[in-house]
């Protein structure tokens, strides 16, 4: 108990000491504030006295104190005269505006009166269109002079705008040459292919398109990997089951599905746990197949969206080239490099006349051409193939994925994406048996 009391006493002493210190600090701040208050009061009194003195001097100047020197009186008189002159100037300005308005109205009345008198004297209502008095002729001459001045000013403005247009054209040519040099340097860095100089804008657009295609191909690869994993799992289950020929095992073929549906339509399927399990497995397989078809449709929609964006970019670039005046008519144009010596000596290549062409950086590039046929000239065939391969890689990818033609000159049918996927023998579908409670 004594220890608690001593601890409480010590804490109270500490609190008291802190309160004393705080009180001392507050008292010091109070003294400082009082001193500042006294200083501000003194300054306010001094300013008030100064204001009273200046006010008194001003009144003496205005009242014209005879005890002041002549210079001060002259200053006061000048200030009064200046104020009076400003007021008179305002009044005269208002009177001048009013007189100008009255003069305009009087001139209009006089003109109307003269025209009325002239019509009454000549008896012609259309005299105003053919007869001009002297003052009206003077007005017309003045208007003609003003119109001439305005015409000269407009010609001067047109000349200035023309000079500015020439400067802008020169700057545009400088930027165009800079872009050409940039394309040449980029072509030199990327392999110095003289067959076609790479354009920076086309390269950026192609990069965006390839990025989208790469993302789509990654999704397709993931889908194929999941299908392969599913097939492997189904095969392992079928191998481990020990009954490869059992009906409706872990993998269903198309023939088994057809037989099962026919049996079910004939209502001869026994209501046994095995048949119910087989039907559940069949439903699961069909649902998974539908899910795969939906995924394929989604990928095709994504592909269509990518191709639509690609076509929109190409149309935008084509519109830009058409507006800039770089559009050319169908004809014979060389597919050569930029400033290369070999392009002048090589014979020109005839492009398809039914396709539009755009003039890029010194090269004519056909828009969306098909895969080029086999070239007869061994000199230009690799160049043309590289040119088309860079513009449309998906066409060459389709040719690479297509199966080779059968011997004998027959044309092989083109396989779809689903038919090119790896499948099990007999068109088997993977089935994951769900766990159901026994009936």
TrEMBL record:
Keywords: Coiled coil. Residues 16-178 form a coiled coil. Residues 401-439 are annotated as: Disordered. It comes from the Eukaryota. PANTHER family: COILED-COIL DOMAIN-CONTAINING PROTEIN 149. Belongs to the CCDC149 family. This is Coiled-coil domain containing 149a. It comes from Takifugu rubripes.
């Amino acid at each position: 108990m004594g220890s608690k009391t001593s601890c409480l006493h010590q804490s109270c002493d500490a609190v008291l000491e802190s309160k004393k210190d705080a009180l001392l600090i507050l008292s010091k701040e109070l003294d400082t504030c009082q001193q500042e208050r006294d200083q501000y009061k003194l300054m306010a009194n001094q300013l008030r006295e100064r204001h009273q003195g200046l006010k008194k001097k001003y009144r003496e100047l205005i009242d014209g104190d005879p005890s002041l020197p002549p210079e001060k009186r002259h200053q006061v008189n000048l200030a009064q005269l200046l104020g009076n002159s400003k007021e008179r100037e305002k009044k005269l300005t208002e009177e001048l505006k009013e007189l100008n308005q009255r003069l305009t109205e009087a001139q209009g009345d006089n003109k109307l009166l003269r025209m009325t008198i002239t019509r009454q004297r000549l008896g012609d209502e259309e005299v105003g269109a053919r007869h001009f008095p002297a003052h009206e002729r003077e007005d017309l001459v003045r208007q003609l002079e003003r119109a001439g001045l305005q015409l000269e000013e407009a010609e001067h403005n047109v000349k200035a705008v023309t000079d500015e247009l020439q400067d802008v054209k020169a700057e545009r040519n400088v930027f165009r040459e800079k872009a050409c040099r940039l394309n040449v340097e980029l072509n030199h860095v990327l392999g110095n292919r003289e067959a076609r100089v790479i354009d920076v804008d086309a390269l950026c657009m192609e990069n965006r398109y390839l990025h989208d295609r790469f993302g789509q191909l990654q999704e397709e690869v993931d889908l194929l990997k999941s299908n392969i994993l599913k097939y492997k799992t189904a095969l392992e289950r079928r191998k481990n089951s020990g009954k490869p020929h059992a009906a409706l095992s872990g993998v269903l073929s198309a023939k088994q599905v057809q037989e099962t549906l026919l049996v079910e339509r004939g209502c001869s399927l026994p209501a046994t746990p095995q048949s119910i399990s087989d039907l559940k497995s069949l439903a699961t397989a069909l649902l998974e197949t539908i899910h795969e078809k939906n995924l394929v449709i989604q990928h095709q929609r994504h592909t269509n969206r990518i191709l639509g964006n690609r076509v929109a970019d190409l149309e935008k670039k084509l519109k830009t080239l058409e507006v800039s005046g770089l559009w050319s008519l169908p004809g014979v144009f060389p597919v050569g490099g930029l400033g290369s010596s070999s392009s002048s000596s090589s014979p020109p290549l005839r492009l398809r006349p039914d396709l539009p062409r755009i003039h890029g950086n010194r090269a004519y590039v056909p828009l969306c051409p098909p895969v080029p046929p086999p070239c007869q000239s061994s000199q230009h065939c690799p160049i043309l193939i590289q040119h088309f391969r860079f513009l449309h890689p998906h066409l060459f990818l389709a040719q690479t994925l297509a199966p080779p033609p059968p011997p004998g000159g027959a044309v092989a049918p083109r396989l779809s994406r689903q038919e090119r996927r790896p499948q099990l023998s007999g068109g088997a579908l993977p089935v994951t048996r769900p766990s159901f409670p026994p009936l």
